[in-house]
Amino acid sequence: MLSLENLTHTIDQALNRSFGPTTVLLVEMAMLSLFAIALFAVLGLVLVFMERKVSAYMQIRLGPNRVGYKGLAQTAADTLKLVIKEGLTPDSADKFLFNLAPFVVMIVAMLLLAPIAFAKGCQMWDMNIGVLYITAVSSVSVIGILMAGWASNNKYSLIGAMRSGAQIVSYELSAGLSIISMIVLTGSLQLSTIITSQQDGWWIFKGHIPAVISFVIFMIAVTAETNRAPFDMAEAESELTAGFHTEYSGMRFAFFFLAEYVNIFVVCAIAATIYFGGWMPFHIGHWEAFNHIMDFIPSVVWFTGKTFALIFLIMWFRWTFPRLRVDQLLNLEWKYLLPIGMFNLLLTTAIAILGWYF
Amino acid sequence: MIEEVGTTTEGDLIINVGPQHPSTHGVLHLVITLNGETVKNVEPRLGYIHRSIEKMCESLTYRQFIYVTSRMDYLSSHINNQACALVVEKALKIEVPERAQAIRVLMAELTRMASHLLWWGALGMDVGAFTPFFHAFRERELINDIMEETCGTRLTMNYMVPGGVMADLHPDFQKKVKEFITMFKSKIDEYDTLVTGNIIFQNRMKGVGYISGEDALSYGCTGPVLRASGVKCDIRKLAPYDGYDKLQFEEVIETGGDSYARYLVRMRELKQSLSIIEQLLDNIPEGDFQAKTKAVLKPPKGEFYTRVETARGELGVYVISEGGLTPYRIKFRSPGFSNLSALHHMTKGSKIGDLVATMGTLDLVIPDIDR
Amino acid sequence: MFLADYIKSVYNGVTSLLKGMRMTGYYFVHPKEIITQQYPEVKQVLPERFRGEVVMTHNENNEHRCTGCTACELACPNATIKVVTRFDITPDGKKKKALETFVYHLELCTLCNLCIAACPTDAIRMAQTFEHSVYDRKLLTKRLDKPGSKLMEGVE
Which residue of C has its CA nearest to B158? Predict the structure, then answer.
């Protein structure tokens, strides 16, 4: 059976036999950064292709189907086009910040890949404050967006960036609250512990009603946090042309574009980890035989399956709903999601204390 | 006139929306003054697609000038052509055969439906939903196919000629239209599911872009924009032409005056147009599709005016004839121009998103405004 | 009741959203609803009235029906057609107008069909071709009468 755990262990041991501990650490870090960059590129390509196909099928179209087998090479061709395209910098832009912003956004997206458990034993950095790290780092991307909007010296970009700032800051609250309400149940911030705590069933089933409410709030909040429709205020195409990346072209635009998709992947991976057990197969209580059959499906399949199902959900939102207005967006957060989230946290705490979860 | 760059003395942003902007449906240029997200002032700048159609018409004969008017409001080109044909018929006192009138009404209503469908899809784009656009185009494509079969082209048909229509209906016309009607009836509920009933869409539309009937009248608004404010103004009822007086249909009136009312008026008009088509389809009178006219049309000296109801409102055609081969002067009273002039009134104090949504409900076609 | 209204509004909002999602979801899992036509592989048969470009009908003996009356040229609103005529001497010694060349500017044509309606002898008609793009604009200026063609017998 395919096990990534054995693979990582073998590499680690092989390295340890040949080199000193410092060299091993350096080599492993280099490998991991290469892995992160490769993952960033691959995820971007795959998700852009997926989005185009999903939108096409919902819009009774075929979508890309000419470049490569069934159009699979379409996004690679698009990326190639963006790479060889001239990246313009406007004359009146703040050139340093303008050029820095896409890298800030990209690096944040890469950093977020660190604590995610892709499969059993396949995790870059299993830190004990994993969830806290993710909520903290993901809010840094707003700096990149504000930087881009401000440095472009374009009013559309500026409005887009300001909207994005207001939006991300507000929705962080709801996302945080709904994560906290699950942390109350798991009792740990470490992602690996959260996953192993779902050995006998996923939290969405074990935590029943409060977990479902918290999941719904989390999905809405992260959709807003990643600037996806129906909350794509920051780029609101019909209002602000392209929002904060109006002035970007070529590869720097592609960085924003890919970072958006990697961010979606990350938040969906987090949701899959917290609510659906990450790589943990579908287990029901003490049905040992059933659990054993489920274990035969490799953990990486479980993880990607769950994550991509959630990504599909977010894409489904985008291709169905109209966009909210900016004040309605904030109303939704402050008048609906936040009170419900707080109430839910209270409920979860009560349930955790009384032990009413399975 | 506002300066087009920089900020005002009060520190408000001045933003040029257009002439190249995704939501202006063409080359409309709006200079908006923004205080944060709030729109303080909207000033349309016109002329980016001015092709001097009125002047062009003055150098063309009475048969020729009709085709140019397809390029004004290209979404209701049949109805524009109809208005021009009507004014020539009025000048020359040509009796149009009943069959020709029925064909004209059928085509005009199909055009109105196609126009409203495109508007529905484009409004979805304006409020950020992309899927309705493709769903609307699926139905619109069928109308275009019907047009293509009978008239020869899909958008700028030039099918109406003085005295009737250019060619008789295609033998398959009735069959195709019936297919379209069954298809459309099965899909119209999806429109409500996807857009009308959606809570986000309703919040974006209700109470936004309000204009009272009185104000709308004083701005010269016509068509669905005025009817949404509760004023009866359907030319098909007020001054029937081409046999509209013999048909049973309801003039759609809403009293809300906001974007949602304008939306509902157009959605209900779709159903009214469908009922007109259904009434006529099996009762097309036999006879000529074109009256006998002279090869060279020379209207007598005088001034002639007709008006019709296009998908956007009242289109007036004013012709001064000196008795020659070409008109001395032609003036079009286009619905889009007056409707656009009310945009400032509707959107003052609203958000940028509302400005775009309100503009969507006005159903602007820029070549119709600039001509 | 404030709280009941609040919960009701949340419920109604969520159901309206779910209805919309059910519809797009339906289309996602029903690919047979897709209406895309793959253009170069699948070419639609265009109706016989479709206006693609103006052509002149010739029979198998390379004869056309154009008498050179220039009715089409006069009917054309934007000078798309230029009919060059010559004067033939008929056997009984009379001068008769005949077609020399029929020049058609596809790049100016709006396909309004007025020339075809004006033609008294049905010499020209609309063809159903639509792939007109060329790399040189000059190629769009066409001569419609075939070289060496002459007027059909009996067409006045």
Answer: C112
pLDDT, tens only, B155-172: 888 888 888 888 888 888
Q: Do B22 and A238 touch (CB under 8 A)?
A: yes
| DSSP character string of B88-136 | HHHHHTPPPPHHHHHHHHHHHHHHHHHHHHHHHHHHHHHTT--HHHHHH
Query: Mean pLDDT across the stretch A226-246?
Result: 78
Contact A319 C20 (CB under 8 A): no
| For chain A, domain boundaries | 4-13+20-59+76-354
Average pLDDT, chain C: 84
CB contact under 8 A, A59 and B134: yes
Q: How many CB pairs under 8 A join B and C?
A: 66
User: Which residues from C are below 8 Å from A316, CB to CB?
Assistant: 21, 24-25, 28
Residue from the list B65, B68, B199 with its beta carbon closest to the beta carbon of C13: B199
By CB neighbour count within 10 A (0-12 exposed, 13-18 middle, 19+ buried), where does B248 fall?
Answer: exposed
Note the pLDDT tens digit of each residue in A149-163.
Answer: 888 888 888 888 888
Domains of chain B with CATH codes:
56-339+354-363 (1.10.645.10)
- Please name the member of A55, A320, A326 whose beta carbon is closest to the beta carbon of B37: A326
- B197: which chain C residues are within 8 Å (Cβ-Cβ)? 16, 19-20
Q: Indicate the domain borders of chain C.
A: 2-33, 53-151
Average pLDDT on A110-126 reads 78
- CB atoms B15 and A238 under 8 Å: no
Question: Model-level pTM greater than 0.90?
Answer: no
pLDDT in tens, B354-366: 888 888 888 888 8
- Give the residue among A337, A350, A354, A333 at the shortest CA–CA distance from A210: A350
- Say yes or no: B198 contacts chain A, CB-CB below 8 A: yes
The interface predicted TM-score (ipTM) is: 0.81
Three-class secondary structure of residue B268 per DSSP? helix
pLDDT at residue A1 in the model: 43
CATH class assigned to C53-151 = alpha beta
Residue A293: pLDDT above 80?
Answer: no
- Please determine, for residue A12, whether its predicted confidence score (pLDDT) is greater than 70: yes
